[in-house]
Design goal:
Elements (H helix, E strand, L loop, with lengths): L1 E5 L5 H9 L19 E3 L5 H16 L6 E5 L1 E3 L4
Parallel strand pairs: 1-3
Antiparallel strand pairs: 2-4
């Protein structure tokens, strides 16, 4: 399980390909948010953010057969289409 809270953008293809190396994984599902028409600023509370996301991941693992999970949550100023 990978949880990353970061200001920097990331390459979705690189992240997805990292999961493809595991032959026991039969599907990869993703959700990618995108800023609409107006820039926004997301705040981050170290420790609290990671804990909340880890709880969501654990709930998903308990409900479905999740083998691995990568969550990348950006913070800071985000411009439209980011």
């Amino acid at each position: 399980m990978k949880i990353s809270i970061q200001k920097e953008d990331f390459d979705l293809t690189v992240e997805t390909n990292a999961l493809r190396n595991d032959r026991s994984i039969g599907a990869i599902a993703s959700f990618v948010g995108q800023v609409r028409e107006v820039a926004m600023t997301l705040e981050h509370y170290p420790g609290m953010t990671e804990k909340a996301i880890a709880k969501i991941v654990e709930e998903a693992k308990a409900r479905w057969q999740v083998l691995d999970c990568t969550v990348i949550h950006r913070y800071g100023e985000l411009k439209p289409t980011e």
